[in-house]
Amino acid sequence: MKRTILQRLVLVCLVVFSALAVCAPEDDNTWSALDKALQKTTRQNAVETVSEYRDTEDKDFRQLVKALENTKTEASFQRLRTYVSILAQNEDLSIAPSVAAELKRIKANPLYGDAGVKQDSNWLQRALDQLKRLRLNWPKMNGPNINPGLFQFTSVLTYLMWGVLAVLVAVFAFFLIKHLRWRHGLARKVRTLMEEDEPSRTADEWLALADENTAKGEYRAAIRGLYLACLLRFDEAKVARFDRSQTNWEHLKRIDASPRLPAGMSFLQETQIFDRIWYGNQVRGLSDVTDFRARYVETVKRLREVAP
Questions:
Q1: Does the pTM exceed 0.70?
Q2: CA 86 to chain centre
Q3: What ranges in the chain are assigned the alpha helix state H?
Q4: Taking Cα atoms as reference points, which of 231, 259, 236, 224 lies closest to residue 246?
Q5: Do residues 242 and 190 make contact, with C-beta atoms less than 8 angstroms apart?
Q6: Confidence (pLDDT) at 261
Q7: Contacts of 193 (CB under 8 A, 6+ apart)
Q8: CA dihedral defined by 229, 230, 235, 238, rounded to 10 degrees?
Q9: 59 vs 76: CA distance, rounded Å
Q10: Where are the domains of the chain?
Q11: What is residue 61's predicted lDDT score, i.e. its pLDDT?
């Protein structure tokens, strides 16, 4: 019973001393007081200001003071002032020295002895240990506290923006290629099948010229002769009149629109082959001439169905 009453008295004393420590005026020898003094003094007077604290147990503080005495530079003065400021901040959050000393004196009293009985006699020590752990160490420089959800959203938004940019680039490239093809097609349209100073020939004459070019290895010119011979055969069959000032595609348009065109007949593929070889310079060799000559024979055969 007596021990319980004594413990309660000790707890009351602890609370009272803590309150007195908080409310008591600031001691001139505290780190807070030194911090305020260093904020007001200059680098030249700093050594004299910290002279009362030379015997402190803080090893880092003594080293900083010694560095200031040896170098007397602004950098050493700022490091000392920053360190004292941190100690002052830690001092405000830690247990007051007067309270700790009084607790130590109370615990040393013989009336507080436990005679070796293991009860709750060490509860005060555990409380003091917990209070000591509240003392702050040097502040740690932590990185920015990034919200994981925000980080994930930012990543998704970044990928989304890159995707939109890729789509825009693809659309731009598509329209650019389409425009270039249109320009190229427009350039082709202004190219007539025959030059103004080129002599006029009959279908048989174009066939004979195609044979000569084939023999000389000029397969591209040979296919042109076969194509012009086909157009003259359409003219002879009254399907579409041959006009040397028009392009191959203009001739094809009039051929397809002609009412005399044999049913199921199309001259589109032959026009595409001629356009690729003559204007596109994509000739493979003699096989192209052989293939186009066979197409010429088939065209003449179909036109005989509507021959006048």
A1: no
A2: 41
A3: 2-23, 31-40, 46-49, 59-71, 74-93, 97-107, 123-133, 148-189, 203-215, 219-236, 248-257, 268-274, 286-303
A4: 231
A5: no
A6: 93
A7: 228, 231, 244, 246, 247, 248, 251
A8: 150
A9: 16
A10: 2-133, 203-306
A11: 82
Tens-digit pLDDT profile for residues 108-141: 655 444 444 444 446 666 666 665 565 544 455 5
Whose tokens are 């088939």? That residue is 298
- Let me know how long the chain is: 308
Which helix H or strand E contains 192, and what residues bound it?
none
Query: Do residues 219 and 289 make contact, with C-beta atoms less than 8 angstroms apart?
Result: yes
The sign of the CA dihedral 78, 81, 87, 93 is: negative
Measured between its terminal Cα atoms, the distance across the chain in Å is 140
Residue where the block lists tokens 């070889």: 277
Tell me the C-alpha to C-alpha distance, in Å, between residue 42 and each of 76, 85, 184: 12, 16, 82
Rg (CA), the chain: 53
pLDDT-flagged residues of the chain (< 70): 1-29, 91-153, 182-192
Identity of the residue numbered 51: S
Q: What is the DSSP letter of 279?
A: I
- The alpha carbon dihedral of 83, 87, 88, 93 has a sign of positive
